[in-house]
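Forgive a beginner's question, but would it be possible to get a protein, spelled out as residues, together with the matching structure tokens, please?
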Amino acid sequence: MTFVDSHTHLYDEKLIADEGGIQRAIDAGVTKMYMPNCDRGTIDGMLQLADKWPANCLPMMGLHPCYVKEDFKDELAVVAEWLGKRKFYAVGEIGLDYYWDLTYKQEQIEAFETQIDWALHYDLPIVMHSRESTADCIDVVRRKQNGQLKGIFHCFSGTMEEAKQAIGLGFYLGIGGVVTYPKGTLPEIVKEIPLSHIILETDAPYLAPVPYRGKRKNESSFIPIIAQKIAELKSVPVAEVARITTQNAEIVFPI
């Protein structure tokens, strides 16, 4: 079985010190790991891994909403420059975050819309952060959807109705370790949503699945644990989850 981790911060200081985690992931069948960018400070580390593991560690370029501050236009200029000079597999991690701070809400929206326009220009998918902001993210995507926009609602945390709206807009739901947690509505959503709309992710080093939750950092080699939980929820073999979610990732991300 082969798997894809559609969202992993391999360059994070908690992971980069243990680069053996990349080989552990490959040994576990996770052959492709897509790395979202945060801001200019994460670019060098991300690209070093991409250059060292070109078949396995695949970079995105974007400005994360939590890094949108008063200098966001300067940060966007860096993103624009990189998109014009190197291959990336998505514009991400972009979107909206209303959980931590609403000080720069309007700036977040502007940065989100601008980066969607760049994704359309370069014919790239978007990988979208939508913490406490799923409805607004859906509204922005709906306004921008011209039949060409595609991507992933990373770490989907919305309602069943929002899941259906996201799928109706041509997007996939990124499902990670949260689906293994005993509380929450995500397992019920996963039961109802067809596998054809689901993509696996870890968001490593965050959101480790049970049984590692609270015990150690998350890593891409845990993708099969997430796949196994989805297989149980949907009463299908884990090999079927691996096959379909990998196929979905191949549809989203450019070869």
About this structure: The first strand starts at residue 3 and ends at 5. The radius of gyration is 17 Å. Residues 48 and 161 are 40 Å apart (CA to CA).
